[in-house]
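Lecture 7, part B: from sequences to assemblies.

Below are the input chains for today's worked example.
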Amino acid sequence: MKLEKSVVRPAADKGAQRVAAALVKLSGQEVEVKVGSFEIFPLIDALHKINITEERMVIIYSKFLTKLPGAAILAMPQDNALRLVDLLYKKPVGTTGVLRNMDRDALRETLNIVANTFTTALSDALKINVGLGVPGFVTLGRLREVVAASIDKGAEEGDMAIFFEIKINISLLHFDAKLYLFFNHRLAEGLVG
Amino acid sequence: MDGENKKEKILIVDDSEFMRGIIKQTLINAGYINIIECCGGKEAILACKKKNPDLVILDLVMPEMTGVEALEKIGKDFSVVVISAVGQKKAIEEAIRLNAKGYLVKPFEEQELINLLDKLLNLTERVQKI
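Predicted structure of the full complex, as structure tokens:
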């Protein structure tokens, strides 16, 4: 199935609903998740489209399980990530000032759930089988290397990728997150779901 | 709480300490007191041999040895419930083919997990009596 906005948009909205439900379970708070900007673009442009310029960002990425070239990237400002850790551990917001290992683990697992939830919704809509692998933290510099390496693996003109900007409100606190899902859609069509 | 404690041994396998903590607390709240943990597929196989758990809760996506590889080794001999962030139909079908007795997508419903465990461990009747 082609990557078209008419197919991807409802999948993104469904993903947002599922992410909201997931975050309610994890935080125990009221949650609203909305898909803001949303774009389908040529895979070869991915490096330029991944627009993460802020210095203090928490960035997590996962490769695809099926050896499919591509990645899921979720980026959140560090001050947002600190607040999210407080909510996940049911602590008063403002408690966490520095991310410890256990905080990073909680963030990695939570953002893993968020990225996988969107990926599942997209897989269902596109009738392909793309699951995400083990997530890890990455610096902005290293992220560019990861993206470039993924694009190099068999990308051809016409291969497409997706970008979502998601906005999350948890218990009246606002969180900005950028979610990039980019993969070689042409190769993914061989992985029928 | 002593009268309601469930003695069955549960092994939790997940590379995320945060998620292991959530699962463990859910089990404790439901009266399970005999809980062991490990963080990877290889450790899970070893723990199954050494500790002989009554039920294994297994994550699928882990570094080194994945849950799928571990499930291939232990699925026939142990009751395994998969809890994974991967929600694709293919992954669920594969886990069931490898003898998983249940599959929950993270973050799971606490009561759904407990109902499944009680059922697999034949505790449903006992829980109703309590």
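Note for the exam: Chain A has a mean pLDDT of 83. Keep this in mind when comparing with the next example.
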